C-alpha cells in the first residue's frame, strides 16, 4: 500500500496501516494537548525549584520557599497540645460535680470523650452507647454498679471480672446445670421473674406456679437481687423488676440464664488509658445517660 495515500473524505494522508479495510489517518496531535503538556512540564520544573523535591543521600533539596511539611505538622501538634493542656489540667484537678456544672468544660468532655468512646468502647456498646446483644445500654441510666461519673470511672479503672486486683466481681450461678434447681424450679422462678415486668403473665391458670417461683426466688435469688428483685449495686446484681435487660427478659432467655448462669466481662482500662482519659470517658458516659433522663 502507498504510504502517501490520501483519504478522499478527510483529505488527510494515511499512515499506511489498514485493519479489515479500515485505514488509519495520519492525524497530528491536537494543539491543545501539546500546550497542556508544555505547561505541565514547565509547572513541574518550577515546582522542583520552589519545593523540597529530590533526595540527596541523607538529605534532600530544600526548595527556594523552604517549605517543610513535617515541621509544620509538628508545630500544629504542639499548638494543639498547648490548647488541650488547659482543658486537661482543669479536668484533672476539678471535681466531677464542678466539671459537670461547667458547660465549657463539658463541651471539651463531649468532643474528647466521643473519640475515646469510639476507640475503646463502641465495639461492644455501640457508637451511640445503646449497647449490643449481650452488652449493656449505657444511656438508659440503669446501672449494675451504680451510676454517676465517679462510679463509672471506678468501673473503667478496675473492670468487671477482669485481671485487676481490685476488679468488680459478679457472677450468676448456673442453677440448672449445676443441679441446684431442677427443671421445674428453673421454669417456675423464670415465670415469676417474667411476671414482674409482664403483668399479663399472671393468670389464674399459672398463679400457683408463679407463687412457687417466688418461693424459689426468695430462697435462692433474693440474697443478691433482694426480696423485691430490685437488685444490689454493691454486688453488681441487676434490678429484675425494671424491664431493663442485658441478655433479654423473655421466658426462654430467662430460663437459659437461670439454667446456665452468666458471667459478664469488662476489661480494666487503667493500663491503657491515663487517669485524665478515664475521667473524661466517665464524664462522657454519664452525660449520655443524663441526656435521656
TrEMBL record:
It comes from Pseudorhizobium halotolerans. The chain crosses the membrane at residues 33-50. The keyword Mitochondrion does not apply. Component of the cbb3-type cytochrome c oxidase at least composed of FixN, FixO, FixQ and FixP. Its main location: membrane. This is Cbb3-type cytochrome c oxidase subunit. PROSITE patterns: CYTC. InterPro entries: CcoP_N, CcoP_N_sf, Cyt_c-like_dom, Cyt_c-like_dom_sf, Cyt_C_IC, Cyt_c_oxidase_cbb3_su3, Cytochrome_c_Oxidase_Subunit. It comes from the Bacteria. It is found in: Cell inner membrane. Belongs to the CcoP / FixP family. The lineage of its organism: Bacteria, Pseudomonadati, Pseudomonadota, Alphaproteobacteria, Hyphomicrobiales. SUPFAM superfamilies: Cytochrome c. Pfam families: Cytochrom_C, Cytochrome_CBB3, FixP_N. Residues 108-197, 208-289 form the Cytochrome c domain. Keywords: Cell inner membrane, Cell membrane, Electron transport, Heme, Hydrogen ion transport, Ion transport, Iron, Membrane, Metal-binding, Oxidoreductase, Repeat, Respiratory chain, Transmembrane, Transmembrane helix, Transport.
Amino acid at each position: 500500500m502507498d504510504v502517501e495515500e490520501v483519504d478522499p473524505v478527510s483529505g488527510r494522508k494515511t499512515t499506511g496501516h489498514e485493519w479489515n479495510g479500515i485505514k488509519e489517518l495520519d492525524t497530528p496531535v491536537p494543539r491543545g494537548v501539546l500546550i497542556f503538556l508544555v505547561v505541565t512540564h514547565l509547572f513541574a520544573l518550577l515546582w522542583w525549584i520552589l519545593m523540597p523535591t529530590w533526595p540527596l543521600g541523607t538529605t534532600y533539596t530544600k526548595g527556594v520557599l523552604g517549605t517543610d511539611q513535617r515541621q509544620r505538622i509538628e508545630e500544629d501538634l504542639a499548638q494543639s497540645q498547648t490548647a488541650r493542656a488547659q482543658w486537661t489540667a482543669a479536668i484533672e484537678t476539678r471535681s466531677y460535680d464542678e466539671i459537670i456544672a461547667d458547660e465549657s468544660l463539658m463541651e471539651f468532655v463531649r468532643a474528647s470523650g466521643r473519640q475515646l468512646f469510639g476507640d475503646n468502647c463502641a465495639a461492644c456498646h455501640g457508637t451511640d452507647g445503646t449497647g449490643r446483644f449481650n452488652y449493656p445500654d449505657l444511656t438508659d441510666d440503669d446501672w449494675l454498679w451504680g451510676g454517676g461519673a465517679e462510679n463509672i470511672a471506678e468501673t473503667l479503672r478496675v473492670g468487671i471480672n477482669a485481671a485487676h486486683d481490685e476488679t468488680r466481681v459478679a457472677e450468676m450461678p448456673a442453677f440448672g446445670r449445676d443441679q441446684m434447681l431442677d427443671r421445674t424450679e428453673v421454669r417456675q422462678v423464670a415465670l415469676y421473674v417474667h411476671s414482674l415486668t409482664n403483668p399479663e403473665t399472671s393468670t389464674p391458670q399459672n398463679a400457683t406456679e408463679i407463687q412457687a417461683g417466688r418461693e424459689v426466688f426468695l430462697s435462692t435469688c433474693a440474697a443478691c437481687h433482694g426480696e423485691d428483685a430490685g437488685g444490689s449495686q454493691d454486688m453488681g446484681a441487676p434490678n429484675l423488676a425494671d424491664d431493663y435487660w442485658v441478655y433479654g427478659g423473655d421466658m426462654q432467655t430467662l430460663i437459659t440464664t437461670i439454667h446456665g448462669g452468666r458471667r459478664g466481662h469488662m476489661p480494666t482500662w487503667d493500663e491503657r488509658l491515663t487517669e485524665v482519659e478515664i475521667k473524661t470517658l466517665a464524664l462522657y458516659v454519664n452525660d449520655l445517660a443524663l441526656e435521656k433522663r
